[in-house]
Design a protein that fits this description.
460 residues, alpha+beta, 10 helices
Length: 460
Amino acid sequence: MLTSLSGRFLFLTVIFVMLAEVLIFVPSIARFREDFLESRLERAQIASLALLADDMLSEELEAELLDNAGVFNVVLRRDSMRQLVLTSPIPGEVDVTFDLREASAWDLMRDAVYRLIVGEPAIIRVIGAPSRDAGQLIEVTMDTAELRTAMVDYGLRILVLSAAISVITALLLFLAVRRLMVRPIKSVIGHMMRYAEAPEDARRIIAPSARVRELREAEQALQAMETQLTQALRQKERLAQLGGAVARVSHDLRNILTSAQLFTDRIEMSEDPAVKRMAPKLVNSISRAVSLCENTLAFGRAEEPAPSLTLFNFAELTNEVLEAERLAIGDSDLSLSEDVPASLMIRGDPEQIYRALANLVRNARQAIIATGKPGEISVAAWAEDDAWIVNVTDTGPGLPPKAKEHLFQPFQGGARKGGSGLGLPIVAELIRGHGGTLTLKSSDESGSCFEIRLPMGGMT
């Protein structure tokens, strides 16, 4: 039961109410003790007045008056004179004297708790002011046995009443909490469980109905979250269907364009001036279309295969990439350079690292050629204590703000018109597969610099 919200609330309510009753009990038992002692003083005063009215009372009658008053003797001060009015044998010495005229609330509570705890009877002297100004002082001597018995009886009645009040209060609060909080919370949980079974079904989105402001705010927040999640799932499903269709179209289109490339090779051999002038543009267009299809197919795979790690010469791989790019540069005023130690060995998948480096160099080449201005692309690599660093730097126009904002997001980070926006996401995915990072170190009107960082791991 204590594992539930309502059960814990019930338990804590009982504890707190009982604690409050205890805090009330101590002043209450102190007040009861004070009233008990004052009643003894009043009864003793009445008995003494009877004797003062007729000082010829017999010893038996005096003893009866003292017994009815519940005291052993009575001392009365009238007209500045202290007089022993009634007396009887005291069974022992007086243990302590209490003056009710000067007692503070703290003293009364302390004395009451002490008398309630200490069970042995004692002889006490009680001093108080006579009622109706019938003298300056009245003093009695009495036994505490009857006082403690009365206090215990009163305390038990108070505790029983407190327990009953605690149980009733806790039960009412328990029912109120279940009605106002627990049921709405369980209802929200039920909505969440039903929504989790079919999150794409908009009919299962919760409709806020709670009357408690905080619960209604929670339901509204849950409604907004479920609505966004349902929309995201629908969009993801549509994108998955679109991706499958695009992948199939790209696959077939790539085959068609590859055949077209074979025909363009022969077209370039034509002696017709118009054909010679249009053939290079046709070849470039087909090449870009083939590249787009290949990138789309590569990104459309569920995931890149795990890299097959091996030690390879990075300088040789860099040279292969740059040689392939030099063929694509043609007559453009673009130079390629490298600053890679001939003996630099890197641990990774040569095929995937080649694709990553080729994508970065190709992007830089296309950006510079698009400006129609001369430029330079440089590849530098070196080894640090715990990683290999590869920098690809160009003197191109830099990345536009939108490309920087969506740098590694597919279809959104394209830096040039007609680009697919897949190159950098593919590179980032390949590098992450090696446990490394791809970072844009700088990009402005003077050029851009990308850094590949590959961890050495356990290599020495």
